[in-house]
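quick one, 180 residues, struct below
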Amino acid sequence: MSLDKTTIAKRYAKALFEIVSENGQLEDTRSELNQIRNVFTDNKGLGKILTDKGLEQAHKQGIVDILIKDASTSVQNLIKMTFDYGRMDDLTAIIDEFNDMCDLSEQLVRARVISAIPLSDEQLNRMADNFAHRLNVKKVILDSEVDDSIIGGAIIKTDSLIYDGSIQTQINQIRQRLIG
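---
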């Protein structure tokens, strides 16, 4: 039975998280992994290339050697293991899962705020502080997006929560009450 990408990512990320947490290397490892993730983001298809059975192993190994050249032992071991098991296409998912674990341990939530107009830094900071208080976490980091179709107000989305304070949603709710 083959494991899905999410299960693989959680297993690898959890193992790495536990090792580097114990050694006090969490932030350094996170930084290294995000640099490697950027390489994969900038080179679409790199994971597929590194798992392609048609490409010579020596060529793929050369690419991996470049990736791990200046990396810590923990990151080198993760990359080598994902390469050896043919899971390089899962590496960005593993890194994303690792980042999620770091955020959870730091009581940090990343969210996207969608508003009808651009928000000032002051508005974003105030909104982040209020949302952090509501979620009972230390910090919320907001990425801002403009969508004039919501008319006004804002929508805040995390991976598991949507807070919709948009005017469009309020109009729709009123419409439903009037109909129903």
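The two ends are 49 Å apart (CA to CA).
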